Write a sequence for this structure.
């Protein structure tokens, strides 16, 4: 599998994994959803906002903007329903971007000010890999936070989403990417 095809697979995986995660988080009452918890950004609500913020930052860079980095603890949406809608829009944007991308994207470099406002340059393959790794990393942390609630964390294993087990009752219809991967 070439690198761009791999990134397309990760974009599809990302969309399906976020759908599963948000379905689980949507079962929480507002108290549990916002409750302070050990871990980055201190709550499920704030961590989900951070993941979306990171996607916005990197997608802006991939699309030719994003020269600065806002505070990484920025809360974009205070309401879960609005955050979920924005997440779904972002995931569609990511899938479309990588489906339409040519190999040329892999030769780019991105110049920006990092979170400490220091000039930085990142090569595209590393920056794109970071976009998907950042999401996976923080989704795992949300699952750890969910484990301390009445809601069971979803299975987010890549191979179970990309190539679901037909005998697995936890596989959700419509949550799997196309079987071309």
């Amino acid at each position: 599998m070439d690198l761009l095809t791999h990134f397309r697979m990760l974009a599809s995986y990302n969309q399906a994994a976020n759908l599963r995660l948000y379905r689980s988080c949507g079962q929480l009452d507002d108290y549990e959803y916002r409750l302070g918890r050990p871990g980055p950004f201190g709550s499920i609500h704030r961590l989900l906002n951070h993941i979306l913020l990171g996607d916005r930052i990197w997608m802006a860079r991939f699309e030719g903007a994003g020269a600065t980095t806002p505070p990484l603890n920025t809360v974009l949406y205070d309401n879960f329903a609005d955050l979920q809608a924005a997440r779904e829009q972002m995931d569609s944007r990511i899938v479309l971007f990588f489906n339409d991308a040519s190999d040329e994207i892999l030769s780019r470099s991105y110049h920006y000010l990092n979170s400490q406002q220091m000039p930085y340059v990142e090569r595209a393959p590393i920056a794109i890999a970071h976009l998907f790794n950042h999401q996976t990393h923080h989704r795992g942390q949300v699952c750890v936070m969910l484990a301390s609630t009445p809601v069971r964390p979803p299975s987010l294993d890549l191979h179970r989403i990309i190539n679901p087990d037909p005998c697995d009752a936890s596989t959700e219809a419509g949550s799997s990417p196309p079987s071309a991967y």
